[in-house]
Amino acid sequence: MTHFFDTSDQDFRIGEKPYLLDRENRGAIFRSAYDARLPVMLKGPTGCGKSRFVERMAFELNLPLITISCHEDLFASDLVGRFLLKNDETIWSDGPLTRAVRMGGICYLDEVVEARKDTTVVIHPLTDNRRILPIDKTGEIIKAHPDFLLVISYNPGYQSVLKDLKQSTRQRFVSMTFDYPDPEDEATIVENEGGIDRQTAKKLVSLAVKIRALKEHGLVEGASTRLLIYAAALLRQGVSPKTAARTAIALPLTDDDRLQETMNDLIDDLF
Amino acid sequence: MKLEMEQELDKQNITLPPIERELDKLKIADPGTAAFAAERLETLSLHLTGETLALMVHDTIFGLTHTSGLAKAVVNAHLDLVQQNAGLDLQTRFSSKLRQAPANTPGEAEIIALFFGSVLLCRRSGMEERFDQALGTMKQRGSFHSTHECFSLVTRFLGENDIQAAALFLELLHETFSAAMVFSLHQTLFQALPKAIAPLPAPKRPWLIRGLRRMVRTDPTAFGHLIKGVRNGLCFLTEQGFDLFLTKALETLAKDRSRGERFLALESRVATDWFNEIKVVVILDDIQAKLQRYMALRTGRNFTIRPVREDTGTICVRSNGRELFLPNEFDRYPDKQSNKELATCLTRLEACYYEWGSFLFDMEKLVDLHLHSHGASQDQARFPEMTKKVSDTGTTNDMTRFFGCFNDPVLARNLFTIAEHARIMHRIRHFYPGMVNRVLPFLREEARQMASVTDAPPLPLILYARIAMDRDFAATLEKDLNDHGLLNRLDTLAAGLVSHESGVEASAAFVVEAYPLVEQHPVQFLNFTAPFHRNIDERPYFKINANTYARAKEIKILLNKGNAKIYTSDIRQKLVENNDTISLDDIRELLLAHRENQGMDMGSLTAIPGLSESLPQGKNTLAPSPVFGENVSVYKEWDCNANDYRNSHVWVHDTGFPECENDFYQTTLNTHPGLVKKIRHTFELLKPETVKIIRQSLEGEEFDYRALVDFAVDRRARLTPKENIYIKRLKQERNVAVTLLLDQSRSTANQVKGSEKTVLDMEKEAAVLFCEALEVVGDSFSVAGYCGSGRHGVRYQTVKGFDDALDQGVKNRIDLITAQGSTRTGAGIRHAISKLDPVAAKIKLILLLGDGFPNDVDYKHTYAVEDTRKAISEARAKNIVLKAITVNISTLSGLNVLYGEFRHNVISDLRELPDRLLSIYSSLTR
Ligand SMILES: Nc1ncnc2c1ncn2[C@@H]1O[C@H](COP(=O)(O)OP(=O)(O)O)[C@@H](O)[C@H]1O
Ligand SMILES: [Mg+2]
Q1: Which residues are CB-neighbours of A103 under 8 A, at least 6 positions away?
Q2: Does A172 fall in a domain?
Q3: A177, A207, A241: which is the final residue of a domain?
Q4: Closest residue, chain A, to B902 (C-alpha)
Q5: What pLDDT score was predicted for residue A2?
Q6: pLDDT recorded at residue B676
């Protein structure tokens, strides 16, 4: 069989060591899961470091990383692959999942619940001890590379969707919970990633911590670490702290004017 | 005749001492009154001269010729005069005024007996004349009762030494009741006038009364409307604002009588708009939601914002961990913005106590960190009492116990306030620099004002300004200070102890060291008042949070028995943060923070007798489950009085419907063919909001190239190719899920204004239209009704579930909804949430259709409204939007409070429904 693409796994290696503040010894747990080749599920709200964690693990384990961001228009064939026509010839082209299965490495299905339901079915045989990927179209059954590891992430914050992830799927993964880091840790992350001084980083974090407590007052999701880093980026561009906090943290969170007003009050206090 | 009797008595009792003799005269006239007088004399322990006593008895006997009530009033009046040292002269004037009252109007004599004394006592010239004039006109027009009410107000003002208001009010009474108007109008005014004036705060009385007089003079017949206006809020204006308003109102009145009258009464739209524009006072009610959210953001806790109960005339702020007390009105500044800012700044300051743990003071920490840390055991010896009390296992909280260690706890408390405010200011400077320049101006102004009322600014206030405000400002107060020694020493002491890093114990350490220094001149420190009366008092806090404290203490003692080191305050903090729960994990974490506990076997924690039992149970512990019926769900309910949820408080019974054939659905469609067509049409238009591309479809407007390639590949491989090679743009899938929630309580059996139909009829017809509309758009939807009878009897009836097709069964059920029970809306919403939450949809919506306000057993007014609001915000937190459509109601503003602005619609006719539904829908999918 001819392969349309012939990529080297070098294309999927992480070149530079991604910055990660490892918390709660997750790195070690992940390594153990990898050693046992157990598929991993990362749970947690958006922007709390799941993707970053996977990048860093791939780097540390010296594995290629293939990330697939799932969306509602993602079909099984988008994962597995399809035939293409080339000069009167039909050529099979591996999808990203298949590629990862063949060459080994981490295949990261980000926000897996966003994908169509039928896509989750194709990953099932990969997650039990068979570790195979059957390809209907070609009749091929690929045995996963010894270094292959499947990692998925999802956000339990969208509770309704949570139930979409069927028990039969969930129960195939070891699961690691992510949450917003402790204030000290988070400040370190914002300081490092955002490239700002610690004092300001701490302030951004204390703003976020307080906003996260506003859930009872109608906020759907709290301010993520990612948003704090955005704010830091704006600050570095010379945007005033108040404006940065407002545009990167308060405004993205809600359209509710009253909640905005309250968050602005606190931003005014802080900066 | 009376005189003869008196002479007779004189002869008989020559030997008695004068008091007994005079009272004996009274005894013969009326033993009851005599006993009353004797008792009053005794309780007041007054010394009366023979003359005064004779005058009193004389007048009392005169009173008895009318009624015994009047006689008693006379006794009281005379004794009042004596008590206030009125002197014989005033008493004689009182006596003669009393006796001038015409015999045929006993009421007049009684008014004089009751109120004239206070007029005499104020000793102002012209007052008596005003009294006479007012009484003169009023006795012709009013009843005794209404006159009484007016004059008791005068007496009240005089009692408060507000002589100006009393004089003005008497003049107003005279002018009002001598003005020409119809009898019935006078009667109304008699009632309304005192009611409008009585609640006015003292500073506003003069100009408001003057304004009322201006009105009476210009247009007495419209006077009543202005009084209504005052009661509707005009008193919230400033003097200038009120003047302006009146001028404008009189202009309107001249042009158009009825418009002018509504303007005066603050009932017209123009008037309220105008009023809101010139109103500078900020009413607590208007800002409390905002302040509450701010407190929640800063402290992570819910505070109820309440008005300070007593009216001290000064601005006074307090809080106790659950409630924040603020003045009901902020009117210090001539503009609204500054008044609002003051309210927010005071809230900002109060939040600091809770954010930075002022009430988490811990005796043991104090000893460990400050009293021992000097290293010397001699330090321990310096405070033996205190160190001993640390191990006290009594129930008194640490703070009260700490202050109790000093000879004068008040002095200690005041020192603590100064140091703790200093610590807080350090923290504000460090953590909230943006706040500094917002709060300081207010603090400075208040302190300046406080300093100005004394000859020399008091030392404690200067110290406060220096360490808890700003030094530059303090310098302005220090000018007249002769001896800076103590001030400097205290300042240095505080600087060494208190910083933005220190805990509340540092403030206590300051007290320990400062107390002996100030003990020599305690008076100033005893009388110290912090700006805005913000002196720290822990007692209300611990009264409200007694349980949390007791629990923490209990856990601590158990752990101490297991030889573990742990601070009560750390346990308390966990409890406060986690809604009164603490887990073994939390405790482990706290224990690990102490070096002393290293090497401790954490696994053995559970073995500590009593510990796991004494851990407070979480909020989510199951309440005894309902005994009957399978389909009962238990919900919490928000108690706005406790500012907390009542867990497992409400039972919702999810019941079905009997089977029953009917053609209500079809009939409704037939009776509103136009509407049905319109709603189908409009919702058809709504469809393509989110165009959904379906690939690998059997039909469609474009090729799906991936599928096309598969097709070609299959053909070449001589397989039967699949023909799903098109892309279809599907409009149906909008990913919206809606619940139509119908209030089916008994009140919906009322008729809609100007219609034959009841509210419920309309709701049911609306439900039909709703089903039609949503069938067209293809959204997933459900329909249900709810009603209540007490917290264990809420019923929820599902007409159509999300998975049900819109079949005949569903259509039949719509007509089976009947009006019954009451309206426990919070529970209805919560149950609807529980059903909508698991549905996978991007946009989730509850449409609440009803006739107005929630109401059930123990579920009324504010409580009901607040719980409903809470349920709505719970929905919002789950990404569920709630919109209300209300049938047949006129008071919009209340609904704003209930559902929030823009979250409700009012309809009075079914024809309005399609448009409302459409606007709700399009705003959602915007
Ligand atoms: N533990 C962490 N160490 C380093 N960076 C982090 C960490 N957690 C979050 N971040 C930062 O936050 C950003 C968002 O995290 P990301 O991994 O994209 O979140 P998620 O995948 O959970 O949505 C990252 O780009 C990174 O800058
Ligand atoms: Mg991610």
Answers
A1: A9, A12, A64, A145
A2: yes
A3: A177
A4: A256
A5: 38
A6: 81
Which residues of B fall below an 8 Å CB-CB distance to A?
Answer: 289-290, 293-294, 296-298, 300, 302, 344, 348, 431-435, 438, 693, 695-696, 706, 709-710, 712-713, 716-717, 837-841, 844, 873, 876-879
d(CA B279, CA B241): 7
Q: B770 and B917 in contact (C-beta within 8 Å)?
A: yes
Element (H, E) at B110: helix B106-111
A215/B877 CB distance under 8 A: yes
**B14 Cβ neighbours under 8 A, 6+ residues apart:** none
Nearest to B767 by CA among B788, B743, B732: B743
Q: Cα separations (Å) of B296 from B291, B322, B350?
A: 9, 11, 12
Domains held by chain A: number: 2
CATH number for the domain harbouring residue A92: 3.40.50.300
B853 Cα: distance to centroid of ligand 1 (angstroms): 46
Pocket test for ligand 1, best of A22, A109, A110, A226 (most atoms within 8 A of CB): A226
> In terms of domains, do A60 and A152 share one?
yes
User: What pLDDT digit, counting tens, does each position of A201-240 carry?
Assistant: 999 999 999 998 776 666 767 899 999 999 999 999 999 9
Residue A215 shares a structural domain with residue A103: no
Q: Are the beta carbons of B877 and A220 separated by less than 8 Å?
A: yes
Could you give the ipTM of this predicted complex? 0.79
Q: What is the mean pLDDT of each run of 10 residues along chain B (926 residues)?
A: 50 56 82 87 80 87 86 90 86 89 79 90 89 88 84 91 92 88 82 85 88 88 88 86 91 91 89 86 86 90 82 82 91 89 96 96 88 54 60 78 90 96 96 94 93 83 95 89 88 94 95 90 87 95 90 87 87 84 82 81 69 54 40 85 80 82 86 80 61 69 77 79 74 72 86 77 86 81 89 89 88 87 91 90 84 82 86 86 74 59 62 72 60
Domains along the sequence of chain B with CATH? 2-231+240-248 (no CATH), 283-355 (no CATH), 358-535 (no CATH), 545-614 (no CATH), 689-732 (no CATH), 736-925 (3.40.50.410)
The answer to whether residue A85 scores a pLDDT higher than 70 is yes
Among A122, A145, A177, the domain-final residue is A177
To the question of pTM greater than 0.80 for the whole model, the response is no
Q: What is the pLDDT of residues A232-244, one digit of tens each?
A: 999 999 999 999 9
Residue A116 covered by a domain: yes
Query: B814, exposed or middle or buried, with CB in 10 Å at 0-12, 13-18, 19+?
Result: buried
Rounded Cα distance, A150 and A141, in Å: 17
Structural domain including A138 reads 9-177
Pick from A85, A216, A261: which is nearest to B709 by CB?
A: A85
Select, from the ranges A144-153, A170-179, B598-607, the one with the highest average predicted confidence (pLDDT).
A144-153
The number of the ligand 1 atom at minimal distance from the alpha carbon of A185 is: 1
Is the same domain home to A91 and A148? yes
Which residue in A has a C-alpha nearest to residue B693's C-alpha?
Answer: A73
Distance, in Å, from the CA atom of A212 to the CA atom of B300, rounded to the nearest integer, reads 9
Burial-class residue B4 by CB neighbours within 10 Å (0-12, 13-18, 19+).
exposed
Q: Are both A191 and A234 inside the same structural domain?
A: yes
Q: Do B465 and B473 meet the contact criterion of CB atoms below 8 Å apart? A: yes
The phi, psi pair for A109, rounded to 5°, reads -95, 100
Q: Which residues contact B213 (CB under 8 A, 6 or more apart)?
A: B168, B171, B172, B175
Q: What is the pLDDT of residue A202?
A: 94
Cβ of B434 and A210 within 8 Å?
no
User: Could you tell me if B275 and B266 are in contact, meaning their C-beta atoms sit under 8 angstroms apart?
Assistant: yes
Q: Do A206 and B431 touch (CB under 8 A)?
A: yes
